[in-house]
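Can anyone check this?
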Amino acid sequence: MIPVIKTVLQRLALGVLTLFAVSIIIFSTVTTLPGDFAQAILGQAATPETVAAFDRQIGLDRPPVLRYLSWVGGVLQGDFGNSFASQGSLGGGHARSVMSLIAPRLANTLFLAGFAAALAVPLALGLGVLAALYRNSIFDRVVNIVTLTSISVPEFFVAYILMLFLAVRWPIFHTLATVGPDTPFLERIFRCALPALTLILVIVAHMMRMTRAAIINLLASPYVEMARLKGVSPRQIILRHALPNAWAPIATVIAINLAYLIVGVVVVEVVFVYPGIG
């Protein structure tokens, strides 16, 4: 098996096992919480017969192990159960399915993360190549200072700084990234500009610095020295010889940062009131 595919499969399997372990911990914790769930949902005026009927309806009369196994079986079929915390379910209303609550918000989160990734990856590669090509120059030093600064600053602080200068003092973009299902694509892009720019500033730094370091490390290789002796230009040496052989560490950092987008986007969504998972 190809090593890259093997590594990907191992990481996916580890992720599934991690989610399985987390689900057991959360389920066990919720099961041991004090109080009566049915009584909390139906209200204090509910009779014992009504509470017992509600317990039978949602399966609370069964042992915890059977309830968990039933939930896992539903998850494997795409059924994550119903949410009794959604609006309208409290006080005797009808519960909504978890997927109907998560799906539209997850789509918004993936859109924002994908938008940021589509801009961040080529920008990071371009800056990394230029920094390696003109290393120790003023451009290289400025880029390194900016990237180190963006790495050191939390996402929410970067978001507030961008909001202050690009939405308050100079009203170029919207302060709130409010979008809906009927929002046109270009309007959605414009409203997501500030959240996407925040994520770009955070993740570009890691990818750019790894690209620069990987290319500079390969510039001391014998085949690069041979290319220099043949009179190949520094630009061609980096693009044709160093960059293709530096893809392994660069691709690893890109994958890690793309995965981080799904986590980091939650904080940014809260700041810009973006209707995502956050």
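Reply from J.R.: I decoded it. The mean pLDDT is 83.
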